């Protein structure tokens, strides 16, 4: 068993929630892209409740928006880990960061495709 593993049971859940909140706080304060996505979500998610769409369509619209936040958190985590290892330019570091960026671009494309398909379809 790993010496880095923490508590079990409710204590573990509470610790995990605290770590998650710390991660959200770090992303919000340190990542402009995350703040922009939070703003986009703050507009699009409430807007979805005023549109004449089915519950399933609304769920897809909201899910696509939340997925982009998840992808941005993972992208930021990859970038932080790469920068922690070394700030030196390296082709593998560039690839990792570019792939994270591509994942975010794909998530934003998904938002556009889902919303356009539902609203224009």
UniProtKB/TrEMBL annotation:
The cofactor named in the record is: Mg(2+)
Protein name from the UniProt record: Diacylglycerol kinase
Q: Where are the transmembrane segments?
A: 33-53, 60-82, 102-120
Q: Where does ATP bind?
A: 12, 19, 31, 79, 88-90, 97-98
Q: Which residues bind a divalent metal cation?
A: 31, 79
Annotated GO CC locations: plasma membrane
Gene Ontology molecular function? ATP binding; ATP-dependent diacylglycerol kinase activity; metal ion binding
Q: Which gene codes for it?
A: dgkA
Describe cofactor binding as the record notes it.
Mn(2+), Zn(2+), Cd(2+) and Co(2+) support activity to lesser extents.
Q: Which residues bind substrate?
A: 12, 58, 72, 101
Give the keywords, sorted.
Answer: ATP-binding, Cell inner membrane, Cell membrane, Kinase, Lipid biosynthesis, Lipid metabolism, Magnesium, Membrane, Metal-binding, Nucleotide-binding, Phospholipid biosynthesis, Phospholipid metabolism, Transferase, Transmembrane, Transmembrane helix
């Amino acid at each position: 068993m790993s010496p880095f593993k923490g508590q079990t049971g409710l204590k573990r859940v509470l610790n995990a929630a605290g770590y998650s909140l710390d991660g959200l706080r770090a992303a919000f304060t340190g990542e402009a892209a995350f703040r922009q996505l939070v703003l986009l979500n703050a507009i699009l998610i409430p807007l979805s409740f005023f549109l004449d769409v089915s519950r399933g369509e609304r769920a897809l619209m909201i899910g696509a928006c939340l997925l982009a936040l998840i992808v941005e958190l993972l992208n930021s985590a990859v970038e932080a880990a790469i920068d922690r290892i070394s700030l030196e330019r390296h082709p593998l570091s560039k690839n990792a960061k570019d792939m994270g960026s591509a994942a975010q671009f794909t998530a934003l494309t998904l938002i556009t495709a889902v919303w356009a398909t539902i609203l224009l379809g």
